[in-house]
Design a protein that fits this description.
With 226 residues, the chain is mostly beta strands. 12% of the residues lie in helices and 35% in strands. The structure holds beta-D-glucopyranose.
Length: 226
């Protein structure tokens, strides 16, 4: 009797463990970059983190681009990013952890900055087409960019220093994508880190761990409008 009670409680304990284990592994797989979403909403691009951002899931910009990084992995600036969309724009909130801020390089991409890459039609065409653009904002709010679809008139941005880093809020006007729930956009996210040397010491990215996004849209991730 005592033995069977013991084996019953062991069986209950085991199945409880299995259930919570499979729950955990489900959560782990749901963090994949192809499950990324932008949430419907409109914000003011002013560098203030309004309440609407609280409901938006976070993406991590933490993959080290080894070929371009001399800094140790744990020392390279990283970010969390949230995305929103409305009938005209995509919005991004970058919250960057960067212990030393510098813009002393004359190359924009070597200054402490974030980059937002967009392939509006998610065609993954390779070279940049009319619907593809590269948008960069420094921690001081300086805008730069490139690509066939890039225009400075399409981006609004505001940056603010925080304790341990900086925040960039931006909007990019989308002209080719059909902005409706379920639509998929090609997106890549990047952080450039000058550790104070006057040149870039490291890059981190969201989806692909190579420094190819400014030339090639193929390895962008996918974001679904929700
Ligand atoms: C890359 C740089 C490149 C620059 C060109 C950046 O995304 O990391 O290596 O020179 O784009 O705009």
């Amino acid at each position: 009797m005592r033995l069977s009670l013991l084996s019953l409680s062991l069986a209950v304990l085991f199945s409880f463990h299995q259930a919570s284990y499979s729950q955990e592994s489900k959560e782990a797989t749901s963090a994949k970059s192809d499950d990324a979403v932008a949430v419907h909403g409109t914000i003011k691009v002013d560098g203030e983190i309004e309440d609407a951002w609280k409901e938006v899931p976070e993406l991590s910009v933490k993959k080290l681009v080894r070929s371009e990084s001399t800094l140790d992995e744990e020392k390279v600036a990283k970010a969390t990013v949230k995305l929103m969309w409305d009938a005209e724009n995509i919005y991004a909130l970058f919250q960057v952890k960067d212990s030393k801020l510098s813009d002393s390089s004359s190359n924009d991409y070597e200054q402490d900055s974030i980059e937002f890459f967009i392939d509006e039609l998610n065609q993954k065409a390779g070279t940049y087409q009319e619907d593809d653009g590269q948008y960069r904002v420094s921690y001081k709010g300086k805008i730069s960019g490139d690509g066939a679809g890039y225009s400075e008139s399409k981006i609004k941005a505001a940056a603010k220093e925080t304790e341990g880093g900086y925040v960039v809020e931006l909007s990019v006007k989308l002209e080719k994508a059909k902005l409706e729930a379920g639509a998929k956009l090609g997106v890549e996210l990047q952080v450039n880190d000058d550790p104070g040397t006057g040149s870039r010491g490291g890059i981190t990215k969201w989806n692909h761990d190579e420094n190819d996004s400014y030339l090639d849209t193929k390895n962008f991730g996918v974001v679904t409008l929700k």
